[in-house]
Design a protein that fits this description.
This is HNH domain-containing protein. Keywords: Membrane, Transmembrane, Transmembrane helix. InterPro entries: HNH (IPR002711), HNH_nuc (IPR003615). The structure is a single chain. Helices cover 40% and strands 5% of the residues. It is elongated, with a radius of gyration of 22 Å. The chain has a two-stranded antiparallel ribbon. The chain is mostly helical. The longest helix has 30 residues. The protein folds into two domains: 31 residues; 93 residues, no CATH class. The model has no long low-confidence stretch (mean pLDDT 82). It contains five helices and two strands.
Length: 163
Amino acid sequence: MPSDLADELIRQTLALAPIVVPIAVLMLVLAMPMPGRGPRPLQRRDPWRGFKYAPRRAVFARAQGRCEGARFIVWGRCPSPATEADHVYPWSRSGPTVLSNGQALCRSHNRSKSNLRPPWWYLRGLERRRAAYFPADVDRRVVARMSAEERAARQVRSRRPAA
């Protein structure tokens, strides 16, 4: 009797496999980040937390003062004015505070994004939308890596006065 129940359970599970496996694979593919664009696995957190002063103004200028969030999933652009400069790859997940990792968002898009690591389709949609309003000479790719110059600018030099 118990073996009949186990056999029936296995049979039902195998009957669902053609449906469940493709759905699981699709969910995995949609949630994956874009390779080579995010922070390195053991990258230390950037000491600069927020976009301030010139970098903040540059993020807003590139977005022409408008929210860079999508109107519907990845299509269209939010019509609201941008009020917050945010990290595409979150600072809490080792995303650096560099211009190539910045985006101008309205309050509601920034709150809904939270600290989620963006999947590949989000980055593709953002870069596609940016083609319409970014200046031609500005790179619109999202890259969450610091250059050597940016890394050197963040070095904290503790110098003690000579005694």
